[in-house]
Amino acid sequence: MRLRRDFFARSVHEVAPDLIGALLLVDGVGGRIVEVEAYDQEDPASHGFRGRTARNAAMFGPPGHAYVYRSYGIHWCLNLVCDAEGRAEAALVRALEPTRGLEAMRARRGVDAERALCSGPGKLCQALAVTREHDGLPLDAPPFELHARETEPPLATGPRIGITRAAERSWRYGLAGSQFLSRRL
DNA sequence: TATGAGATCAACT
DNA sequence: GTTGATCTCATAC
User: Fold this and answer.
1) Which residues contact A46 (CB under 8 A, 6 or more apart)?
2) CA–C1' gap, A161 and C7, in angstroms
């Protein structure tokens, strides 16, 4: 079943755990979401914390859209915008279990190991060829494709990764026991 | 296994 | 001019 736009018209703290196990494809390439992180506007680590700017405008747009930004000048990171009624909430997609377009991902990443294809936000965007061009695009139209999970998977939570502010908040959600997480939860 | 440096850019101060 | 929601490779233990 395809995820509809109202799926995202909720608080990110409800959407993020529901995203685990969903199928995310870009141009037919992708896999199951096994790890996400939640960011809301009260969060000093969030780009939306200091208000709207040219970069994070997508975070303040309608829910069900993509927010893509460049990190450390090198990598792209893909967020799914949630309830954005001026609240600027988004879920950062951190890791996928690759299921479709494996060869395309290997070619883009330049690595062979399946576990290394999408086990991190930057890797995932490279594997799916996500760039600034995808910033602000709706998730229910090509090239994006998002399908709801069929069964509720076992969840694990933990502290977020790679940030210096409010890192202690347990807003990282993962598929328990998955081999495709960026780090073990 | 763990820690550290380099890569490289746009937004922000 | 500084700073990251990161990744990879190198070196050390």
Assistant:
1) A39, A40, A88, A90
2) 13
